[in-house]
Amino acid sequence: MKSSNQQSTRQEPAPAPAAAAEPTSGPLTREELQLAARNHSMPLEALRRELTPPGLHYVLTHFDIPDLDASSWHLRIGGAVERALELSMAALLRDPAITVPVTLECAGNGRSLLEPRPVSQPWIMEAVGTAHWTGVPLAYLLGKAGVLPDAVEVVFTGADAGIQGGVPQQYARSLPIREALRPDVVLAYKMNGADLPPQHGYPLRLVVPGWYGMASVKWLASIEVAKAPFPGFQQKVAYRYQESVDDAGTPVTRIRVRSLMVPPGVPDFFTRKRFLRAGPVMLEGRAWSGEGAVTAVEVGIDGTWLPAHLDKPVGGYAWRKWSLPWVADPGEHVLACRATDITGASQPLEQDWNYQGMGNNVVQRVSVTVE
Amino acid sequence: MKSSNQQSTRQEPAPAPAAAAEPTSGPLTREELQLAARNHSMPLEALRRELTPPGLHYVLTHFDIPDLDASSWHLRIGGAVERALELSMAALLRDPAITVPVTLECAGNGRSLLEPRPVSQPWIMEAVGTAHWTGVPLAYLLGKAGVLPDAVEVVFTGADAGIQGGVPQQYARSLPIREALRPDVVLAYKMNGADLPPQHGYPLRLVVPGWYGMASVKWLASIEVAKAPFPGFQQKVAYRYQESVDDAGTPVTRIRVRSLMVPPGVPDFFTRKRFLRAGPVMLEGRAWSGEGAVTAVEVGIDGTWLPAHLDKPVGGYAWRKWSLPWVADPGEHVLACRATDITGASQPLEQDWNYQGMGNNVVQRVSVTVE
Predict the structure, then answer these.
(1) Do A37 and B38 touch (CB under 8 A)?
(2) B3 C-beta neighbours (distance < 10 Å), count
(3) Measured between alpha carbons, how far is B363 from B335 in angstroms, rounded to an integer?
(4) Which of B22, B52, B269 should be substituted to probe chain A, the one whose Cβ sees the most A Cβ atoms within 10 Å?
(5) Dihedral over alpha carbons B109, B36, B58, B25 (to 10 degrees)
(6) Which residue numbers delimit the Oxidoreductase molybdopterin-binding domain (chains A, B) (predicted)?
(7) In which element (H, E) is residue B244 found?
(8) Which of the 8 DSSP states describes residue A160?
(9) Residues of A in contact with B277 (CB under 8 A)
(10) Which of A17, A197, A200, A259 lies 20 to 30 A from B330 at CA?
(11) Do A5 and B61 touch (CB under 8 A)?
(12) On the CB side of A172, how many CA atoms lie within 13 Å of its CA?
């Protein structure tokens, strides 16, 4: 890291709750606004695009964006391996590369719609994006290092450092061995064919297709194969489905099925309400699931659900385009969309509340005035 | 525009106030959060970089980001000219090009710090960014078209459409002829050497160095040379320094002098408070002014002001780097920075309130815990 004033920090077992305050029905706090100003979501009109460019793709950064120099940067691979490795970017670029299309979504997407509202990054519903990620398959590098038979997890540590829940830490997450060895898990150095932007993990990040974004560790500094489950803050405290602060909960893993719509017509600047001329309009959007293929999208028009046309799947865990022609007649309308995936899971019509505000895939509703 | 469901809109004289509600001391509204989720600021650690990449550079979009096809796009130049022109991107790319380094800042930067708070996009203080903009000098194209002697302004209209203050409109702004003919005003098709990203005005935008960002019209569709002052909403209603809703006010034009600091140390995730080890640390940041060169930056350490070192100016209206070594001793500290420009203008220590929350260049203060 170029900056001289970063603290060195160590990962320690977490004594503190994940949230800084209890869920509230009160107004947004200054701290939540600060987070909303730092982290950005994807404007919904970007759903028209199969791939999301930097600046439109959502970004969540727990701490500061590190300022890393690729020429001096090294990835360390160690722990329960036969051969510890230390790899430069030049070395990684000589390894075989794959490109995977992946829809990434923040696990906290939809949080600010919950009632009461868990107090953290106040996403509405657009914390998503899809990109082509290019790099070395993680399985290939783990093969090079040789995973010992009693290994159970792989721990990924980023260069981003700070304090959360009272715990000084570098951002770190683990994956079970079986997930780490999936052929589509990639150590990416390119996004949509260009070097990673700083905010997306330059020079190297993990991308775990199908999992919520917290698994895809950015600014990757080290990979440690572990013989015991990782006790880090982002694993054991944050990113859990909990009923209350006292509930140990269950870990957040794969992305719940969701669909979103390009809001039709034009917006009012301040209210973001939509205005549309009467007549035919093509409603369109994208749908995705980390549990497998999206098999159906229904569009709700004033409470009546109609099946949408689905384009061919792009493959992997990338979103799938849907569309439905609508003849808009004058008046006030409420549009909605609801996806189902191959497991039979559908988006809920009402909130499925949890303490940290994770995985809220409630259906999107768009109010439109037709003139 | 690819989308079939955009309303055609006309610019009309504006009957409505610029703000959707009166300034308030109350909590942030849902509408303000929606705007904060759509529009993003620059994380302050990006002040380490001379140039700001897409995704870190601030973005404000009044309506939706248009989805334009450069191959069918044309720029129309008309009004009080000798020869109306209609130019394709291919034609523009054959014209002589310049590259200008420019710091752009939103006129509403600092708004949410004001008390009472004008209700609109709730910027804190990071709505800024610096890029190299490459394209055709506007003066060159105006020369090609031939400006008639009685012209007074040039009106720029973007493809982005919606409703603001009750007025259906395409985003449009004007410049006085003398500003439009400045040699550094550019019709840009590249940002930092790459095609414009969608959110920065693809395929073509205006960049007016020294002026707040509202002048640099994105998704440029037409240029109209006018014989009378432009009465559009974004000119006559929005972007004015007003004392109250009834005050006609004065137009917002050039960027007021400002400096910002990279917050030292590491953050707490939720509060964004800073934590730093005792010892030497280099405080650094950037300073800029649309009125001319930055001539001094002072750094406040617990209320004592010290002169910072200034790097050589980059030139034009790009920000200038400053730095000051500090030996941090344990305890609570408040850091601040304050720039002065060649006109003698300095940043205010207390807010200079106005009704729309424009041009709030109050000094930044950063609280740091040194351990």
Answers:
(1) no
(2) 17
(3) 10
(4) B269
(5) 10
(6) 62-233
(7) none
(8) E
(9) 5, 7
(10) A17
(11) no
(12) 28
Q: What angle do CA A242, A248, A249 make, to 5 degrees?
A: 40
A124/chain B closest Cα distance in angstroms: 7
State residue A252 phi and psi, 5-degree precision.
-80, 130
Contact (Cβ atoms closer than 8 angstroms) between residue B270 and residue A20:
yes
Shortest CB distance from A43 goes to which of B5, B65, B262? B65
Q: Please check whether residue B199 touches A, CB under 8 A.
A: yes
* Amino acid making up residue B57: H
The pLDDT tens digits along chain B (371 residues) read: 333 334 444 444 444 577 778 999 999 999 999 999 999 999 999 999 999 999 999 999 999 999 999 999 999 999 999 999 999 999 999 999 999 999 999 999 999 999 999 999 999 999 999 999 999 999 999 999 999 999 999 999 999 999 999 999 999 999 999 999 999 999 999 999 999 999 999 999 999 999 999 999 999 999 999 999 999 999 999 999 999 999 999 999 999 999 999 999 999 999 999 999 999 999 999 999 999 999 999 999 999 999 999 999 998 999 999 999 999 999 999 999 999 999 999 999 999 999 999 999 999 999 999 99
Q: ipTM score here? A: 0.94
Q: How far is B64 from chain A (nearest CA, A)?
A: 7
